[in-house]
Write a structure and sequence with these properties.
Length: 198
């Protein structure tokens, strides 16, 4: 709790109190926490500074920069989806606007928050317990690079908030590790629809 207080909740609490008893959607809370983290850590949010793969994979690159440079899928989104993301981003902007102006913090733009929401949706993982019950949502930048296959050779397993990649099939030297982004037991049409969304 102390770490959460220092990392984001001290500021987030002001936003939550201002909302009084209204329920804030979880995606708004998540992107707002990212925004608070970016403000406190003074991220360089210049869109023009796309990172090269070698730098992204470097052990010297922190996860903040990896997040900013994950694929947004923005150009592949339909107008309806972009409008949905923009509405959510606008809600996050209003939510974050509850911070006092004298905090000397610059809230990311609605466009940037829209793209971050897209990053979270496309690259995030539902965290589940040992009985596969959903308990949260997380972003693991290195795992987000793994491609989809309808016949995956790997799965992500969780121990608390720690994610591990485990093989479920033999993998030959040089063969790509893959995950399924969807429930492979779902009917074909549902799988196709889910993949289009990804």
């Amino acid at each position: 709790q102390l770490n959460a207080w220092k990392a984001y909740h001290k500021l987030e609490c002001k936003c939550m109190k201002a909302m009084q008893s209204k329920v804030v959607p979880s995606n708004i809370i998540l992107v707002s926490r990212l925004a608070i983290h970016s403000m406190l850590n003074k991220w360089d949010l210049d869109d023009s500074k796309a990172m090269k793969t070698e730098k992204w994979l470097s052990k010297d690159t922190n996860d903040d920069m990896r997040f900013i440079n994950l694929h947004t899928g923005w150009n592949n989104q339909g107008n309806e989806k972009k409008i949905e993301l923009a509405k959510s981003a606008a809600m996050a902007t209003v939510y974050l606007g509850r911070l006092k102006p004298n905090e000397s913090l610059t809230i990311p733009t609605t466009k940037m928050l829209s793209q971050w929401l897209s990053i979270l949706e496309i690259n995030g993982f539902e965290i589940s317990d040992h009985e596969l019950r959903p308990v949260g949502y997380g972003l693991f930048p290195a795992l987000a690079l793994i491609n989809h296959s309808c016949r995956p050779n790997s799965v992500v397993v969780f121990d608390g908030t720690k994610a591990s990649l485990r093989t479920i099939a033999d993998i030959k030297k040089g063969e790509e590790m893959t995950l399924s982004y969807i429930d492979t037991c779902a009917p074909f049409k549902i799988r196709q629809k889910e993949l289009e969304r990804q």
